């Protein structure tokens, strides 16, 4: 069971899975924070993620989880703190830059390119790996055919993770909800990230779809050897797949640890259920 | 003294821009759309007044009132027919529709009144001019009227949106349509009212503009309209004091350009200022920033 | 296997485009034959070059409005830069290069390059602004360009080329020739534009725009239009692709301007005002945003139609305005759109040849 992973201390703050010990963590957030006109949406956020860790970010609505994603991907520029991606400071990078450095994400409210086909959506994700320039493209030179062929094959390969190859030529906007969520994950993977951020990947899915998603998250980690950080409200999923969990409330971390630690943590129970103690 | 004369002319022109800018700013604040046809409502106002004085033989005051009433109705009609069906549509579609309406009004005017310029009747000549500094500086009656009308309009509208029930509803709709609707505000009626007020103001601006520059053509409204939008953006779109400030600054800038730099290049300079303002401070002088939700 | 894959790609990248090229080629052959045999009336053959120019304008504007999704209201500004540059180039090279088609080609390249350079200035706000603000800024730029054109004077005499901001300042020697005369525009142009040159420009434009759309650059540009934040999140550099689309569009408009200008003996800067920008926008909207073939048909039809319906000329602009509004209402209103779609599918589509019906709505808008 993945949740049985033992956590070991790292040279810096925080814990990562034992198997990633000795290697540089993929993400280190140190004192990360942002204020919106005086309101501290996220403050003093410290988190460390191992190179192949599946981590969870949970917390009540409005706790600042998506804001953390937006800070990591520089949709918002942090007002405080440092983000080290594979040891490299992402200070001054913009969203596109951060993606090229290795962070890919999905969105809570799906953001696909609805008028492009499924395959084209994935191909856009591979744009930064393509090299042919505009003139090559317009004149249809050799590079164009070579790279487009490579991308076409790679797209189908990636789509096959979720068994979506047969949908390759369907417009993304006309896909059913669940397929749109999966396509977003494929598109993010197409950018060859070293850290994948999933914002509520199981939202709106039924139990069997969720079970399949859990399998797929592990499969993605194992095939691509990448780290995954996910925001999710489905506690079954979080407790099942996540190795390290970070709980956010009112923009501050109130607990960190293994699923077992979190389930037993009184502060977490209080944040979710209020003062009166009950079964979590 | 020529500096002061230019300044007063600038303020006079700026007052007209400010009144037009008010219409833009209110509609933009509430319907979140650039009503491209606003400038052409000015032109229609001018023609209505012209016809009423020259053909119907009505006096100045009834003619102006008639122009205001017809333009108000026109504003409501345009909103209902062209803009309301597109409330949920992408802003590109709304903008193209507004351009269509603008084009329609101009060409309708062209068919009705012809392309030749009409000399606008001098409605405001009866107002005495003001002599200052022993007659060295003359402030024309028209300039006085422009500035006074502008200040009155601004005060009334500020009080209206700040104090009255309907005005508060307007502000609520501009903040959040959905929430306003849940609070029992009739959003459609509020938007219609905004168009009505904006178009009524356009008629006033039309009369003032045509009295100051008494040549009336189907394209009379488009340039002042675009410049007034510039003024609204300059001051900060959605802000009433911003429209006043932007309008006056733009008017003074234009007159000074004409007087001291080059008459031919004055439009280029005014638009250059617009571009610089948008680049440096896209929310304008008194506007507030907006953040896209992710 | 590899061969099969490549074939698949070929098919995908040619889909729908072959018909567009074929349509243009057939139209050219018919018009060329008719012109050679003298079957076209004088006034009608005068329209052939403007049609080509407007087709290029519409296709290039479609790249900005339909493909990139940003409204540009200053497209005529780039056309005017191209027209002036082209006409001046041609006038200066008249003695050097007597072969007219080559001179025209150089003039079109020159017009395109200068329009592209000017668009690099315009692109600064394009990168920072969106939506209504961007539209108004492009309008402002169009007006600024026109305003500046009105105070440019260029002349050529024995001492060389003179450039000034007023006629008096030119200091022309005896026997000098005026090329640009401020508000009078470019004068004394040699009419060297031909249908064939126009056709070549249209074909080049089509190759550039259609191939651009179906390449990684085009995909990225359309992704940006569909969802800017998502495009950024997968590493797309918004600035790079916006510049690419906008400048390409301006270069093509500049070349179209040069072609257009050299169909007349003189051309006023007033010709390229806001109304021309709107006219081209009407072509794009009516042909379908993002639909290149639609732009071609709309531009050609709406340029020639007023000539055929002379007696209704006064109503032309009014009708355009109504068309613009109605098309927007029909394609964007949630109540009207399904009705229109149903009408199309039940009443019109079955009557069309099969292929056309399928590709009629390329962008689904």
What does this structure look like?
The complex is a heterotrimer of chains A (280), B (294) and C (365). By secondary structure, chain A is of the alpha/beta class. Chain A contains 10 helices and 12 strands. Chain A has helices at residues 65-72, 95-101, 118-125, 134-139, 142-159, 177-190, 207-224, 235-241, 259-264, 266-273; strands at 7-9, 15-17, 27-36, 39-49, 54-58, 80-85, 88-89, 103-105, 195-199, 227-231, 244-249, 252-257. Chain A starts with 6 loop residues before the first strand and ends in a 7-residue tail after the last helix. The mean pLDDT of chain A is 89. In chain B, the strands form 2 sheets. In chain B, strands 1-4 form a two-stranded antiparallel ribbon. In chain B, strands 2-3 form a two-stranded antiparallel ribbon. Chain B is mainly alpha-helical. Chain C has 365 residues and is mainly alpha-helical. In chain C, strand 1 (153-157) and strand 2 (160-164) form a beta hairpin. In chain C, 70% of the residues lie in helices and 4% in strands. In chain C, helix 4 packs antiparallel against helix 11, helix 5 (75-93) packs parallel to helix 7 and helix 8 (195-213) runs antiparallel to helix 11. Chain A binds chain C through residues 73, 75, 94-96, 99-100, 104-105, 107, 111-116, 120-121, 123-125, 127-128, 130, 132, 134, 137-140, 144-145, 147-149, 151-153, 171, 187-188, 190-191, and chain C through 2, 5-6, 8-9, 13, 207-208, 211-212, 215-220, 222-223, 225-227, 229-238, 244, 248, 290, 363-365.
Poorly predicted runs of chain C: 1-6, 354-365
Give the integer mean of the pLDDT values of chain A: 89
What characteristic shape of chain C results from the CA principal axes? globular
Low-confidence stretches of chain A: none
Strand segment count of chain C: 3
* Separation of the first and last Cα atoms of chain A: 21 Å
Described by strand count, sense and barrel closure, the largest sheet of chain A is: 6 strands, mixed
Count of distinct structural domains of chain A: 2
Number of helices of chain A: 10
Radius of gyration of chain A: 19 Å
Give the count of helical stretches of chain C: 16
Mean pLDDT score of chain C = 85
Q: What's the CATH H-level superfamily name of the largest domain in chain A?
A: P-loop containing nucleotide triphosphate hydrolases
């Amino acid at each position: 069971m993945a949740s049985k992973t033992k956590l070991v201390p790292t040279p810096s703050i925080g814990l990562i899975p034992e198997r990633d010990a000795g290697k540089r963590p993929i993400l280190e957030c140190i004192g990360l924070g942002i204020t919106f006109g005086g309101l501290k949406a996220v403050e003093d956020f410290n988190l460390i993620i191992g190179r192949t860790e599946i981590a969870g970010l949970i917390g009540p609505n409005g706790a600042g989880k998506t804001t953390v994603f937006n800070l990591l991907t520089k949709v918002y520029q942090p007002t405080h703190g440092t983000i080290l991606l594979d040891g490299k400071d992402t200070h001054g990078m913009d969203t596109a830059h951060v993606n090229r450095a290795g962070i890919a994400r999905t969105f809570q409210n799906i953001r696909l390119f609805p008028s492009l086909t499924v395959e084209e959506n994935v191909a856009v994700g591979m744009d930064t790996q393509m090299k042919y320039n505009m003139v090559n493209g317009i004149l249809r030179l050799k590079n164009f055919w070579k790279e487009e062929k490579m991308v076409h094959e790679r797209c189908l390969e990636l789509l096959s993770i979720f068994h979506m190859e047969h949908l390759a030529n369907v417009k993304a906007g006309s896909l059913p909800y669940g397929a749109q969520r999966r396509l977003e994950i494929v598109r993010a993977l197409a950018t060859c990230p070293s850290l994948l951020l999933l914002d509520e990947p199981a939202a709106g899915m039924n139990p069997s779809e969720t079970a399949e998603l859990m399998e797929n998250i592990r499969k993605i980690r194992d095939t691509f050897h990448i780290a995954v950080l996910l925001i999710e409200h489905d506690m079954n999923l979080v407790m099942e797949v996540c190795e390290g969990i970070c709980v956010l409330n009112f923009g501050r971390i109130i607990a960190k640890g293994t699923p077992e630690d979190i389930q037993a943590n009184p502060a977490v129970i209080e944040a979710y259920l209020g003062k009166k103690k009950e079964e979590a | 003294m020529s500096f002061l004369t230019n300044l007063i002319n600038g303020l006079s022109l700026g007052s007209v821009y400010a009144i037009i800018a008010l219409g833009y700013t209110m509609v933009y604040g509430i319907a979140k759309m650039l009503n491209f046809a606003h400038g052409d409502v000015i032109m229609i106002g001018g023609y209505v007044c012209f016809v009423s004085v020259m053909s119907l033989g009505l006096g100045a005051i009834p003619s102006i009132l008639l122009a205001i009433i017809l333009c108000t109705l026109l504003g409501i009609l345009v909103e209902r027919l062209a803009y309301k069906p597109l409330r949920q549509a992408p802003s590109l579609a709304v903008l193209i529709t507004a351009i269509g309406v603008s084009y329609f009004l101009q060409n309708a005017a062209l068919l009705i009144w012809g392309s030749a310029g009409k000399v606008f009747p001098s409605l405001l000549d009866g107002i005495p001019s003001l002599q200052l500094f022993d007659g060295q500086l003359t402030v024309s009656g028209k300039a006085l009227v422009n500035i006074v009308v502008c200040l009155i309009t601004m005060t009334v509208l500020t009080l209206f949106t700040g104090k009255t029930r309907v005005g508060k509803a307007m502000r609520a709709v501009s903040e959040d349509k959905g929430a306003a609707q849940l609070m029992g505000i009739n959003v459609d009626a509020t938007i219609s009212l905004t168009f009505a007020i904006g178009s009524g103001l356009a008629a006033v601006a039309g009369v003032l503009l045509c009295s100051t520059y008494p040549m009336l053509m189907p394209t009379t409204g488009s340039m002042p309209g675009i410049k007034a939008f510039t003024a609204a953006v300059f001051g900060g779109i959605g802000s009433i004091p911003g429209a006043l400030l932007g309008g006056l600054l733009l008017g003074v800038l234009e007159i000074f350009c004409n007087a001291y730099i080059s008459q031919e290049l004055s439009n280029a300079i005014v638009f250059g200022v617009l571009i610089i303002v948008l680049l440096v401070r896209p929310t304008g002088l008194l506007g507030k920033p907006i953040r896209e939700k992710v | 296997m590899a061969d099969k894959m490549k074939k698949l790609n070929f098919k995908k990248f040619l889909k729908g485009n072959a018909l567009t090229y074929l349509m243009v080629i057939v139209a050219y052959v018919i018009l060329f034959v008719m012109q050679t045999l003298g079957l076209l009336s004088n006034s009608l053959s005068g329209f052939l070059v403007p049609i080509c120019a407007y087709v290029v304008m519409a296709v290039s504007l479609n790249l900005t409005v339909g493909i990139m999704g940003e409204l540009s209201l200053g497209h005529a500004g780039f056309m005017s830069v191209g027209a002036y540059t082209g006409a001046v180039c041609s006038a200066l090279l008249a003695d050097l290069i007597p072969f007219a088609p080559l001179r025209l080609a150089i003039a079109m390249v020159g017009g395109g390059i200068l329009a592209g350079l000017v668009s690099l200035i315009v692109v600064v706000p394009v990168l920072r602004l969106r939506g209504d603000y961007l539209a108004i800024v492009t309008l402002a730029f169009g007006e600024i360009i026109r305003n500046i054109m009105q105070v440019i004077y260029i002349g050529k005499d024995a001492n060389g080329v003179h450039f000034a901001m007023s006629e008096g300042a030119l200091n022309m020697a005896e026997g000098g020739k005026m090329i640009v005369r401020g508000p009078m525009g470019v004068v004394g142009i040699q009419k060297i534009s031909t249908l064939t040159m126009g056709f070549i420009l249209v074909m080049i434009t089509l190759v550039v725009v259609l191939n651009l759309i179906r390449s990684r650059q085009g995909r990225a540009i359309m992704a940006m239009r569909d969802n800017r934040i998502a495009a950024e999140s997968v590493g797309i550099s918004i600035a790079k692709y916006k510049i690419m689309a906008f400048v390409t569009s301006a270069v093509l408009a500049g070349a179209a301007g040069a072609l257009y200008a050299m169909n007349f003996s003189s051309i006023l800067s007033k010709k390229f005002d806001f109304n021309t920008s709107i006219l081209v926008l009407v072509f794009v909207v009516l042909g379908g945003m993002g639909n290149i073939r639609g732009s071609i048909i709309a531009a050609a039809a709406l340029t020639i139609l007023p000539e055929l319906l002379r007696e209704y000329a006064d109503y032309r602009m009014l009708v355009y305005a109504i068309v613009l509004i109605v098309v927007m209402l029909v394609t964007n209103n949630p109540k009207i759109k399904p009705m229109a779609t149903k009408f199309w599918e039940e009443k019109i589509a079955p009557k069309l040849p099969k292929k056309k019906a399928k590709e009629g709505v390329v962008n689904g808008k």
